[in-house]
Write a structure and sequence with these properties.
Elements: H1 26-39, E1 46-48, E2 58-63, E3 66-78, E4 82-89, E5 92-102, E6 104-110, E7 116-122, H2 123-136, H3 147-158, H4 161-164
Antiparallel strand pairs: 1-2, 2-3, 3-6, 4-5, 6-7
Length: 166
């Protein structure tokens, strides 16, 4: 399949909750292949299906050499311990803001054979799992920022050339 262009902040598909996957067919296989091809690019830690224009509950990840995907993922565990760090998003290029996330996260979903899959991690993997699941719920990470930082984020977004070229 192919590397797919990333939808930018402001595209309505990024604000819509993704639909659960019910058909495990060739079309889905093509979507998964595109997600894996797209996440394999340098600097891509995760890609959710809505970011490539497809409103289904699927994402791929590429963290510390571990590449994979999850269909119909649900966050089932978040640690009480948190991490603070700069978070970025392919849908908001050239921007990053300090975002608090759980230090550890566990996602459960299924694979192409509709068999159970569990992905867990700490640090960057935990951040990725939370970030991509948010995309599938129609949320972008800047919605998690405190009000003052969110105002600054929107100010910086309006200053981006890509924001006006949609």
């Amino acid at each position: 399949m192919a590397f797919r262009p990333i939808r930018r902040f402001g595209d309505p598909i990024l604000r819509m909750p993704a639909e659960p996957i019910t058909e495990f067919d060739q079309r889905l296989r093509a979507i998964v292949t595109d997600l894996l091809d797209t996440v394999d690019a340098p600097g891509h830690a995760g890609v959710a299906a809505p970011q490539i224009g497809i409103g289904v509950r699927a994402f791929s990840y590429n963290v510390d050499g571990e590449i994979g995907y999850v269909l119909n993922p649900e966050l089932v565990e978040l640690s009480e311990e948190t991490q603070d760090g700069v978070e970025a998003c392919l849908s908001l290029p050239n921007l990053g803001f300090n975002t608090r996330r759980a230090q550890r996260a566990v996602v459960r979903g299924v694979d192409m054979a509709n068999e159970p899959v569990t992905v867990s991690g700490t640090g960057l993997m935990a951040r990725c799992l939370q970030h991509e699941t948010d995309h599938l719920d129609g949320k972008v990470y800047i919605q998690r920022l405190d009000p003052e930082t969110r105002r600054e984020a929107f100010s910086q977004i309006r200053d981006q050339e890509w924001f006006w070229q949609r």
